[in-house]
C-alpha cells in the first residue's frame, strides 16, 4: 500500500487504519541542535574554502522568499542550503471567526495574481463541509475559469520568470562559451517556432525587449480577457462561490470565450517546440546540466478540473470524483505512482513547525477523517496557527513556512506534477484531446495556422530543473485541450437547457462541519481545510505550492525541495573569478524551475498578540 | 470635462475590521465630481494587471491620481503629495520589479516603474502617499476580530469607528484627492517630485552571514 513511513495499513475494502501495536503512531524523532551543529562542522571540516552566497530574494518577491546557500566555489559544489519564507502569511488567523462565505473572497487575496484558485479552493472546502453540490454547468464554468488562470500562469513562468535565465543577456554574462555555440546552433523545430538558430531564440528571450518575452505578456492579457468573459473580473473574481458560480453564461458568451482561446492553439505548439529546443541544446552543450536542480521525482498533486458527472463535493465519494478529474490526483514517490486516491493524499499530509516561527498546538480534535481513516495530530484539520516571531537561527527556526510532508517525506509541487501524474495514472476520462499512456501524456493540439499536432510528453529518465520547465511547456497544451473539452461540455449543457450555475445554501448555526478543498494553483498543489462551528470558521488552514517547495527542513533533518534541489546542483557558471562576480545562475535556475512565488501577501505580526497587520494592503494603512 | 483615474493601490474590499481603506473608498465614492469624469479604481493586484487594464481601456485619461501607503522614512501618518516625474529606467531594474509584479506583489513603487515602462500614465500623475508605521508595529491597536465560539459572538476590537488619528488621515487624503481631481498639481501645496531615484530599492531581507575572508569563511550557523 502507499504508506511506507506512517504506520497506516488498509483493510480489504481499502479503508485505512493504524497498525496495531504501535504505541505512539505519530511520534517522530527530531534532529537535535547538537546533531545539526555536528553536520555543519563536518561540512566546514571537509570544505576548507567556503563562501556563503545569498540569493535574496530568489524571485525578488519583496523579500518574501530568500535562499541561503553555502557554496564551495573551488569544487563547484553547494554544500548547505536554507530556504526562508521571511514574512508571515496570516490568512489562517484572519479567517478565524469569520463567516464561511467570506473564505473565498478573503483567501483570494492571498496572491495578487492567482487569487481565483484560492477562491475556488475555498469554495470547494465550504461545499464539502456543508454538503453543497453545484450544478453541472457551475462545475464546468469553474473549470474553464481555472483554465484561464493556468493559460495566464504557464507563459508567465516560461518566458517572464524562468525564461530570462536562458536569454542572450544572461547566457553571455554567465557562460559566454555557450553563447558562442548557440549563435550558430541549428534548431530542430524551426517549422513550428520559426527560429533557425538557438541564439536567435535566446535573443528573443531577453527581458523586456525580446519578442518571446513580450509575446508572453500579451498572451497573459488574452488569458485574463477570457477569464473576465466568464468571471466578470480578474484578479480576485467575485463570481466564485460555494455551490458554483454567479455568472450568466449563454452560447454567445461561449463563442466569445472560444475566440479568445484560439491564439493558444498555435502558441501551445510553439511553447513546446521552443523549450524542447532550448533544453536539448543545453544538454548537448554540457551533460552536467542534467544534474541541475536534480531530485528523485517525489510529488503530490490533488488534481483539478472536476468532471460534472461525478463531482458531488462529499468526502465520502472523493476518491471516485477525484480520479475522474481532468488532471489526475496522486502521489509519486521516487518516480513510482503510489496512489491516486484523495483520501490517501489527505491522510498522509502533516505539517511540522520545528524550524518555523510557530508555536506547537495542544488541541488536536480529530483522530480520523470523516470516512474514519486515521489522521495525524499534525494534520491541517488539527493544526492551529500560532505565530511566534523570533530570531533567525539556522539550527532551529528560520522560516515562516511550515514543513508539509506526505508519508513523512518532503515532496515537490508544481504544474509539472499534474502532467507527470496524469501521464502515469492512465485515469483521465475519455477525451478526443488528451490521453494518458502510463508513460506519456498525449495532446491532440487543434489546427490553427499551424497544422493539427499530436504532442507527447514522456516521463523523463531524470528529473531536474530543465525537465520541470519542459513539462511546464507541455502543460500549456494539456491545459488548453482540457479547456476545449470543458468548453464542448458547457455548450452541450447549455443546449440541453441545463443552465443553472449555482446551488443555494444556508450556513448552519449549529454543529461542527469539516471540509477540505483539494485543488491546484498555477504552481501546483493547493489545499484549504476548514472547521465550521456554530456558523463561523473555527479553524482554517491553507497549504500552498510554495509552502511545499520552499519549506525548511523536517524535524528529523530532511531538506525541503528547494533546499535539496540546490544541494544537488553543480556550479556550471563559467564567467567568474571569485565570489564578487559569481552570479549563481545555476542555483537560480534550479530554484526558478519550481516557479517560486511567496507573496501570499505580507502580513506582519503585532507584537505580543495574535493579530496581524496587512502590510501590502497599503491604502488601509492599518494601525494609523 | 477632464478624465481622471483615481486609484486606490492595495485597497482590500472584503476584510472587515480594517476600516481605513474601505472608509476612504466610501468617502471618495460619495463625492460628486460635476466637472470631471472620475473613475475610482481598486488597484489591489499586481502591476502587470493594472498595466493591461490601462492598455485595454478606451479612455485616454488626462490625469492619474494614486493613493497608497509607503515607507519613505517619515512619521507614521504623514500624508505627502508627489508628482511622478519618471526618470531613466535600466532594463534589468525594470525586469526586477516585473519579477515581483508577476508573482503577486502589490507595490506602488513597482507599479510606477512598470507603468512608466509601458507608458500607461497620463501626462499628469499625482501620488498621494501615506506613511505607514514601522514593521515592528509595537502596540498599535488595529481592528481585528474577537471570536467567542461558545457564545456565537464575533466582535470587532480596536479601531471602530476610526481612531481620531485615522479619521484625520482619511479626511486629509479625501481633501487632497479632491484638490488633485479639481485642480491637478496646480491646486496642491508642497508637491514633491517623485522619480525612479526616490523609490525604495527592492528589499533585502536576508544578509550574508559570513564573508569575513573571501578565501576562508565559516558555514552558515
- Structural class of chain B, please? alpha/beta
Percent range for β-strand residues of chain A: 15-25%
**Given this structure, which CATH class of chain B is correct?**
Alpha Beta
CATH topology of chain B: Rossmann fold
CATH structural class of chain A: Mainly Alpha
Proper CATH architecture of chain A: Orthogonal Bundle
**Count of folded domains of chain A:** 1
Proportion of residues in helical segments of chain A: 25-40%
Low-confidence stretches of chain B: 13-18, 134-145, 204-221
Instruction: Please state the oligomeric state of the protein chains shown.
Output: heterodimer
Major sheet characteristics of chain A: 3 strands, antiparallel
Assign the structural class of chain A, choosing from mainly alpha, mainly beta, alpha/beta, alpha+beta, or little secondary structure.
alpha+beta
Largest beta sheet of chain B, briefly?
6 strands, mixed
CATH topology heading of chain A = Cytochrome-c3 Hydrogenase, chain B
Tally of DSSP β-strands of chain A: 20
Estimated radius of gyration of chain A: 24 Å
Core attributes:
heterodimer; A: 624 residues; alpha+beta; Cytochrome-c3 Hydrogenase, chain B; 3-stranded antiparallel beta sheet; 20 strands; 36% helix; disordered C terminus; B: 221 residues; Rossmann fold; two-stranded antiparallel ribbon
Amino acid at each position: 500500500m502507499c504508506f511506507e513511513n506512517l504506520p497506516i495499513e488498509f483493510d480489504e475494502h481499502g479503508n485505512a487504519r493504524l497498525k496495531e501495536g504501535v504505541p505512539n503512531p505519530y511520534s517522530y524523532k527530531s534532529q537535535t541542535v547538537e546533531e545539526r551543529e555536528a553536520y555543519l562542522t563536518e561540512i566546514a571540516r571537509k570544505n576548507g574554502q567556503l563562501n556563503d552566497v545569498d540569493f535574496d530574494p530568489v524571485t525578488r518577491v519583496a523579500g518574501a522568499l530568500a535562499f541561503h546557500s553555502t557554496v564551495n566555489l573551488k569544487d563547484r559544489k553547494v554544500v548547505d542550503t536554507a530556504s526562508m519564507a521571511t514574512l508571515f502569511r496570516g490568512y489562517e488567523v484572519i479567517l478565524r471567526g469569520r463567516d464561511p462565505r467570506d473564505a473565498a473572497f478573503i483567501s483570494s487575496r492571498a496572491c495578487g495574481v492567482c487569487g481565483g484558485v484560492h477562491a475556488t479552493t475555498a469554495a470547494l472546502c465550504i461545499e464539502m463541509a456543508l454538503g453543497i453540490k453545484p450544478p453541472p454547468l457551475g462545475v464546468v464554468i469553474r473549470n474553464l475559469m481555472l483554465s484561464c488562470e493556468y493559460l495566464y500562469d504557464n507563459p508567465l513562468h516560461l518566458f517572464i520568470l524562468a525564461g530570462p535565465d536562458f536569454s542572450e543577456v544572461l547566457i553571455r554574462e554567465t557562460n559566454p562559451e555557450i553563447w558562442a555555440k548557440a549563435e550558430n546552433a541549428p534548431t530542430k523545430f524551426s517549422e513550428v517556432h520559426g527560429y533557425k538558430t538557438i541564439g536567435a531564440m535566446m535573443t528573443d528571450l531577453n527581458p523586456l525587449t525580446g519578442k518571446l518575452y513580450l509575446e508572453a505578456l500579451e498572451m497573459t492579457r488574452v488569458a485574463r480577457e477570457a477569464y473576465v468573459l466568464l468571471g466578470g473580473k480578474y484578479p480576485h473574481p467575485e463570481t466564485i462561490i460555494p455551490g458554483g458560480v454567479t455568472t450568466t453564461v449563454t452560447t454567445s458568451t461561449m463563442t466569445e470565450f472560444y475566440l479568445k482561446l484560439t491564439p493558444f492553439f498555435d502558441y501551445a505548439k510553439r511553447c513546446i517546440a521552443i523549450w524542447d529546443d532550448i533544453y536539448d541544446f543545453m544538454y548537448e552543450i554540457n551533460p552536467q546540466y542534467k544534474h541541475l536542480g536534480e531530485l528523485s521525482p517525489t510529488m503530490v498533486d490533488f488534481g483539478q478540473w472536476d468532471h460534472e458527472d461525478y463531482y458531488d463535493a462529499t468526502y465520502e465519494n472523493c476518491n471516485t470524483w477525484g480520479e475522474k478529474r481532468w488532471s489526475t490526483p496522486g502521489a509519486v514517490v521516487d518516480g513510482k505512482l503510489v496512489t491516486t486516491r484523495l483520501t490517501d493524499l489527505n491522510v498522509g499530509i502533516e505539517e511540522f513547525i520545528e524550524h518555523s516561527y510557530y508555536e506547537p498546538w495542544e488541541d488536536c480534535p480529530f483522530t480520523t477523517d470523516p470516512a474514519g481513516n486515521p489522521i495525524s495530530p499534525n494534520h491541517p484539520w488539527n493544526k492551529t496557527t500560532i505565530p511566534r516571531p523570533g530570531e533567525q537561527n539556522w539550527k532551529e527556526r528560520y522560516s515562516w513556512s511550515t514543513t508539509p510532508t506526505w508519508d513523512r517525506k518532503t515532496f515537490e509541487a508544481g504544474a509539472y506534477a499534474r502532467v507527470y501524474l496524469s501521464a502515469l495514472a492512465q485515469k483521465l476520462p475519455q477525451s478526443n484531446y488528451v490521453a494518458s499512456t502510463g508513460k506519456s501524456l498525449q495532446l491532440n493540439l487543434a489546427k490553427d495556422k499551424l497544422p493539427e499536432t499530436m504532442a507527447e510528453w514522456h516521463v523523463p529518465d531524470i528529473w531536474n530543473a530543465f525537465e520541470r520547465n519542459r513539462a511546464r511547456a507541455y502543460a500549456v497544451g494539456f491545459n488548453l485541450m482540457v479547456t476545449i473539452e470543458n468548453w464542448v461540455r458547457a455548450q452541450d449543457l447549455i443546449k440541453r437547457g441545463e443552465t443553472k450555475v449555482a446551488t443555494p445554501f444556508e450556513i448552519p448555526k449549529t454543529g461542527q462541519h469539516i471540509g477540505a478543498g483539494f485543488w491546484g494553483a498555477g504552481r501546483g498543489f493547493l489545499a484549504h481545510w476548514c472547521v465550521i462551528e456554530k456558523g463561523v470558521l473555527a479553524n482554517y488552514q491553507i497549504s500552498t505550492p510554495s509552502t511545499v517547495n520552499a519549506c525548511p527542513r523536517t524535524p528529523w533533518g530532511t531538506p525541503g525541495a528547494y533546499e535539496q534541489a540546490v544541494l544537488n546542483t553543480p556550479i556550471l557558471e563559467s564567467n567568474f573569478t571569485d565570489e564578487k562576480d559569481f552570479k549563481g545562475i545555476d542555483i537560480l535556475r534550479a530554484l526558478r524551475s519550481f516557479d517560486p512565488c511567496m507573496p501570499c501577501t505580507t502580513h506582519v505580526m503585532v507584537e505580543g498578540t495574535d493579530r496581524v497587520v496587512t502590510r501590502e494592503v497599503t491604502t488601509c494603512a492599518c494601525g494609523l | 470635462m477632464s478624465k481622471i483615474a483615481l486609484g486606490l493601490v492595495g485597497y482590500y474590499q472584503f476584510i472587515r475590521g480594517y476600516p481605513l481603506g474601505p472608509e476612504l473608498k466610501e468617502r471618495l465614492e460619495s463625492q460628486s465630481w460635476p466637472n470631471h469624469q472620475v473613475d475610482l479604481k481598486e488597484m489591489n493586484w499586481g502591476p502587470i494587471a493594472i498595466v493591461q487594464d490601462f492598455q485595454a481601456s478606451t479612455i485616454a485619461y488626462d490625469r492619474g491620481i494614486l493613493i497608497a501607503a509607503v515607507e519613505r522614512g517619515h512619521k507614521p501618518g504623514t500624508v505627502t503629495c508627489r508628482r511622478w516625474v519618471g526618470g531613466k529606467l535600466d532594463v534589468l531594474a525594470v525586469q526586477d520589479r516585473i519579477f515581483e509584479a508577476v508573482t503577486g506583489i502589490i507595490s506602488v513603487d513597482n507599479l510606477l516603474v512598470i507603468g512608466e515602462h509601458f507608458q500607461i500614465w497620463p501626462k499628469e500623475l499625482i501620488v498621494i502617499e501615506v506613511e505607514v508605521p514601522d514593521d515592528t508595529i509595537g502596540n498599535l491597536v488595529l481592528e481585528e476580530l474577537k471570536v467567542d465560539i461558545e457564545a456565537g459572538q464575533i466582535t470587532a476590537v480596536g479601531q471602530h469607528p476610526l481612531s481620531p488619528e485615522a479619521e484625520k488621515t482619511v479626511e486629509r487624503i479625501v481633501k487632497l484627492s479632491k484638490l488633485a481631481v479639481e485642480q491637478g498639481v496646480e491646486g496642491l501645496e508642497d508637491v514633491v517630485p517623485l522619480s525612479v531615484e526616490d523609490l525604495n530599492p527592492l528589499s533585502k531581507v536576508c544578509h550574508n552571514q559570513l564573508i569575513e575572508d573571501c578565501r576562508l569563511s565559516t558555514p552558515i550557523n
